[in-house]
Design goal:
Largest sheet: 5 strands, antiparallel
Number of domains: 3
CATH topology of the largest domain: Alpha-Beta Plaits
Number of strands: 9
Helix content: 25-40%
CATH architecture of the largest domain: 2-Layer Sandwich
Distance between the termini: 46 Å
Order of helices and strands: HHHEEEEEHEHEEHEH
Number of helices: 7
Shape: globular
Radius of gyration: 22 Å
Structural class: alpha+beta
């Protein structure tokens, strides 16, 4: 919203009357946006070597402070891409870990330092492209994407998904004939990314497939119920 208003104001400012400016200022004050999408601004000491490593496909030593870890650790990786979606709340550096033969997501603002080596880096292009395309909220894996199918009850969701479909990989909707629910499908490579989106609907959503995801979310809801019913 703010970017759109700033662009509109810049475009029209030369022809605005005093009354127009007053109306425009009132419009800006009337808009309320919760939160924001701006990432912390990283220093050139972090960004420049990341971009250099991405351009030259070099092995890179990344000192990373994982959430909850007592100390930062060094990751010997090959950077592949910077990723961002509406669920992640920040930018991630997608890398290939040669030692573990796995893709990793490193949250950019937790990177302490980056050192690009002279060693050429190699990685599985198809696997990394897939890991980038099907990540949700920073969650990805080396596994092939699986199809998630869920039933979301409530006629208002049909219109909501039509007007503002969530930014999920290969997201599709199939409204029921009676208009009381909508079946949705999308793809993911990690259960946590899929469950993060689905669990926000509470009892309104039911996972139909895959079975392992259905059971995982069921277990999470059982734990939640037990916590709510616990008497201290």
């Amino acid at each position: 919203w703010q970017d759109q208003l700033d662009a509109l104001e810049e475009l029209a400012s030369e022809r605005m009357s005093t009354r127009d400016r007053r109306l425009f200022e009132n419009l800006k004050k009337a808009i309320r946006v919760q939160g924001g999408v701006d990432d912390p601004i990283e220093s050139p000491d972090i960004l420049e070597p990341i971009l250099k490593a991405l351009e030259g496909r070099k092995e890179t030593d990344v000192v990373y402070q994982a959430a909850g870890a007592a100390a930062a650790s060094v990751h010997h990786v090959v950077p592949y891409a910077l990723t961002h979606d509406l669920f992640s709340g920040g930018t991630f550096l997608l890398v290939w870990d040669p030692a573990r033969a796995l893709p990793k997501h490193l949250r950019q603002n937790r990177i302490v330092s980056v050192k690009v080596t002279s060693r050429p880096g190699s990685l599985p292009e198809e696997l990394m492209s897939r890991a980038a395309r099907y990540q949700i909220g920073g969650w990805t894996s080396a596994e092939a994407p699986f199809l998630v199918e869920a039933l979301v009850r409530g006629p208002h969701w049909i219109q909501t998904f039509k007007e503002a479909p969530p930014a999920l990989p290969d997201f599709q909707t199939f409204p029921s004939k009676d208009g009381a629910s909508v079946r949705v499908t999308f793809k993911a490579t990690h259960a946590n990314g899929a469950s993060r989106w689905l669990m926000q609907f509470g009892a309104a959503a039911e996972v139909l497939a895959p079975e392992f995801l259905r059971q995982e979310i069921l277990a999470q809801f059982r734990k939640a119920v037990a916590a709510y019913e616990r008497v201290d």
